[in-house]
Amino acid sequence: MKKSLLVAILVIFSMATSPIGAHFDPPGQPAVQVNVYFIGMSLSEDMDDGANGYADIIGTYKVTHSGHGTKDGKIDMFYYDWDTLKGKNGYIKKRLLYSHKECSPIKPITVEVGMEEHNTIFSNTQLGSGSITVTKPGIYEIKLDKGKALIEVKVTPAVLYSEKCSYFYDQPPSYASSLVSSSGGYIYDWQLANMIHMWIANRTGYANMVFIFNQCFGGGMIDDLKEKLKGTGDAAFLSASKHDEPAWGLGDDYNPDAFPEVKGKGFEKPEGFYPKEVGEELAKTGKDAPTIKELARRAEMEDIKGPYGLWKKDIERPQYTSVGRGDSIKIGKKADGSDVKSRHAILFAGDADSKRHWNNLDRAYKALKKHGFTDTDIIVLAGNGKTMPDGTNVPGYVDGPGTKKALYEAIVNVSKKMNKNEQLVFWVSDHGNRERIELSILKDIIDPVRQPVPPKRTARRPEQVSWDLDEEFLKVVKLDPDNQPYVSILVEATPEVVEYGEKMFRNIVLYMNGQMLELTMVEPIIAYDGEPDLDAFELVYYMDEELLGEENLIEVEWAGDPEMFIEYTILGLMISTGGINELEAEPVEAVEEQTLFELLKEYVPVYNENADNLPGFIKRIAGNERIDLEISLENGSVLNVGIVTEGGYITEFSKGRISEPTMRAWTDEEVARRIISSEDPMSTATNALKMGEIRYSGVGFGRTLRVFVFKVVIKVYRVVEVIGDLFG
């Protein structure tokens, strides 16, 4: 296919479309521009009526975009040269049929066409009609009675309309997210929400609060906070990804000099993609300081792993939402623009075991310092609080370890300084968990026999005793080789349970799909409800990820002396992915798209090897010439190419005007790229030449006359074809 492309080099050879009205249907990042084009067709037989040597084709179309609208119209006449194409696809200049902006993923688009061969004397010959429904971009064929119609669906990011599709995905009630700590305990979304509500919103009040989650599944931390804070004041919530998505960052071995494209985006060292963009916006002060909503939008658009970044399959979808007048918050400001009395921040990087976690932390800390935060205003909890992964001491601004206990104490301490004139920034970077969860199970265990713990409210079927996991959860478990999945139960902290504590817990055994699990860790739960007291104990049981399936039977059993059995109540159960680290993206050095000149030049040797297969009339036109080729580009400029041929072979191919040309040729970029992308470039180029899309003339009287004679010969050749069609 590529070999025949070189016809285009001898005789070389956009279409800007204006958007049509749009409406949007969140959820779905990114916003996209959807264009549907008619790009050509093929015939299964010669349909030339003898008038001009071509099949003169016209048609009608109807595009139905589910949930958006319908457009119909006519397809103006174009030509199909059977003698050149002989049943192959013939590509024409794209005809825009439909254009619309919407949120991803695109909704089904049905394209119907009806085609006919136009006759000047007799009635038109029907070529047939057909339709196709598509849900993704690409080139498609619509089968007709006597050929195929070709359409293209093109989808491109519509960055300027990103806000229309920036949407907060609420986490289903059967799932939860959590923060990883360096002590092994996890801070679940409902726990954090209860702590913030009971210690700040419900006791001291606040001017506003900003929550930024940069870890995997960060979007899942938002829904409980949003629900608890609704009606209590102004708050804004950001995250790097949805509740069911990992976040992305650069690995410890990242070398910026090896990846200039990534370095050009400002990545001088390993960082998370989203935290870096948030940090840059957060660092803007004075009149350049954005509102939190503006900050979130810009970070979403600039995130190179986000929906408008690298535009690959594995992306992260930043989340943003607010309560009250949260959209208008600025750092150091109330929603009405007045100054807060003072500012406070908690920066948390629990199990910070990668360079990017510390770099993320450093960027956030320095951004807040630019806004006048003092070290007294900022509580920083990270890693073990003493050393970083490389053994060096933590920065001097780190106040303590990233433990669950330290975080709770930080919230309590900050609450003592909060009132309706204070601002709190809560920032997280590190690993994140996703959990299949159900609280308020309230299952009383009144005897020591082995028995199931069924889900109470979130089972798929009535009387279901197994715990279902969705496909995405099972995929996530396998993403990080270092994560440790677990199942845990919440045991109500009754006086008797508190009294016996550890002695009792060691006798509670869990079974996951028949496999016995042993108790690994016990965590006190002090934020199960709205009061700051001991509510329950979380009993954590590690397991192998191979045990997990779509349906999972979880059972409890008393492993000790039956006579020593103590009754207890299970308040809740969780199945966790374990701490998933941000996925490390392999930076790929961007390769600039080849220019039109480069695409043509690289095939010159291949062309020369196949020059003998070119049509004879092309050899006669440009067999021994100095050709000055001019290509009008889509950006309004002109590409000049100089070509020297001897005996039908190319001996020189250079960029720029050629001296002392003997022939000039003109075309435009759309024709050139149509030929390049065609499945049969030689036929497409030859057809473009015949249709006058590639124009040429001689230089000087002798050459001009010679070229004129060849043009007449071609026209006579076409007349002979017409006569042959008429008289057989």
Description:
The chain has 728 residues and is of the alpha+beta class. It has four domains: 31-163, Immunoglobulin-like; 166-436, no CATH class; 471-576, no CATH class; 596-698, Nonspecific Lipid-transfer Protein, Chain A (2-Layer Sandwich). Helices cover 23% and strands 31% of the residues. The strands form eight sheets. Strands 9, 10, 18, 19, 22, 25, 26 and 29 form an eight-stranded antiparallel β-sheet that branches. Strands 14-12-11-17-15-16 form a six-stranded mixed β-sheet, sandwiched between helices. Strand 2 (55-65) and strand 3 form a beta hairpin. The two termini are 33 Å apart. The model is unreliable at 1-23 and 709-728 (pLDDT under 50).
SSE layout:
Elements: H1 7-11, E1 31-43, E2 55-65, E3 69-80, H2 82-85, E4 90-103, E5 109-117, E6 125-134, E7 138-144, E8 147-157, H3 162-165, E9 175-180, E10 186-188, H4 189-201, E11 208-213, H5 222-229, E12 234-239, E13 248-249, H6 260-263, H7 273-282, H8 292-302, E14 319-323, E15 342-349, H9 355-370, E16 378-382, H10 404-415, E17 422-428, E18 432-438, E19 443-445, E20 451-452, E21 467-468, H11 471-477, E22 486-492, H12 495-505, E23 508-512, E24 515-517, E25 521-525, E26 536-542, E27 551-552, E28 554-558, E29 568-576, E30 583-584, H13 596-601, H14 604-609, H15 616-622, E31 626-632, E32 638-646, E33 649-655, E34 663-668, H16 669-677, H17 681-690, E35 695-698, H18 701-727
Parallel strand pairs: 11-12, 11-17, 13-30, 15-16, 15-17, 31-34
Antiparallel strand pairs: 1-4, 1-8, 2-3, 2-5, 5-6, 7-8, 9-10, 9-18, 12-14, 18-29, 19-29, 20-28, 21-27, 22-26, 22-29, 23-24, 23-28, 25-26, 31-32, 32-33, 34-35
